[in-house]
Amino acid sequence: MPLHLVLLVLAIVAVWLPPLHWGRITVFAWHGLLLLALVAGVANQGLTPLACVWIAILFVLAQGACRSTHRLWSAALAVLTGLMTLALALHLLPGFNNPSYMLGDAGVGAAKRLSFDKGVAGLILLGTVAPRTQTLAELRALVRPVLLAIVGTVVLVLSAALALGIARMEPKWPLNTHLWLLSNLFLTCVAEEAFFRGLLQDRIHRAMARATGVWVPAIVSAVLFGLVHAGGGVGFVIVATLAGLGYALAYAVTRRMEAPILVHFSLNAVVFLGFTSRLG
Fold it and tell me: How many domains, in total, are found in the chain?
């Protein structure tokens, strides 16, 4: 894995580190690691200066959406943050030279891409707008609901996928599985959950929770998650929506980003290691 991607992963992990305070100055470790990742990316030609501009724009938008006290201005910035996140996650913005690797043996494996643009979008959302645990006590409180959500989501989604014929059991551990697991957790699950739950569901919840409770925001984010997987067909949309509902309920119950990220990654890992499917 290139240095700038290693630094990006470390920056994502560093989101959970407490900030340092020097007088009125507050320093976040993930800010420094992100800056180092950008410098390393430009140096090794994994990024162009234009890519750094896109990242800076998203950072400013997300900070504004998080800090603005004006309701309409905050909502507008949140929409722009979401659109910029989607542009990065869908690889629509130039300047990113994402490397690839072979998953499986040469000749029979599949080429997979390590997406810095999607990963950095997830990092910025995770570090700015997404609610996270702040103490060990909060983290321990997540154990039971997360385990229940993992079991329930895995059973529900796999049952539906097997019934619809879009998955079959096929245990495997191909070459570079460790790299797939690492990239799926940090460059896929973090980004998708930070967007669908940390930004989208959380904003809907804050706007509608008094009138609708937690169910409507959860269902909306789950349905949208399913629809973005429409390329796989109707059956895949159904299964992805069920998966999204599991992630959404995990977030609704805990109100912490760690829950849907862990549920999402657990399902992806079970599907990848035990089944042949396009889930995840």
Answer: 2
Residue where a domain stops, chosen among 128, 147, 174? 128
* Same domain as 66, residue 12: yes
- Model pTM? 0.92
Distance set, CA 167 to CA 13, 33, 108, 149, 222 (Å)? 32, 39, 20, 21, 20
Q: Are residues 120 and 180 in the same domain?
A: no
260 near 248, Cβ under 8 Å?
Answer: yes
Q: Provide the terminal-to-terminal Cα distance of the chain, rounded to the nearest Å.
A: 22
Same domain, 119 and 7: yes
Residue by residue, pLDDT tens for the chain (280 residues) are: 899 999 999 999 999 998 888 877 888 999 999 999 999 999 999 999 999 999 999 999 999 988 887 888 888 999 999 999 999 999 999 999 999 988 887 655 688 899 999 999 999 999 998 889 988 899 999 999 999 999 999 999 999 999 998 888 889 898 999 999 999 999 999 999 999 999 999 888 887 766 667 788 899 999 999 999 888 788 899 999 999 999 999 999 999 999 999 999 999 999 999 998 655 4
- 143 and 274 in a single domain? The answer is yes
* Residues 274, 145 within the same domain: yes
* Residue entry with tokens 């006590």: 137
* Domain around 149: 135-280
How far, in Å, CA of 13 to CA of 30, rounded? 8
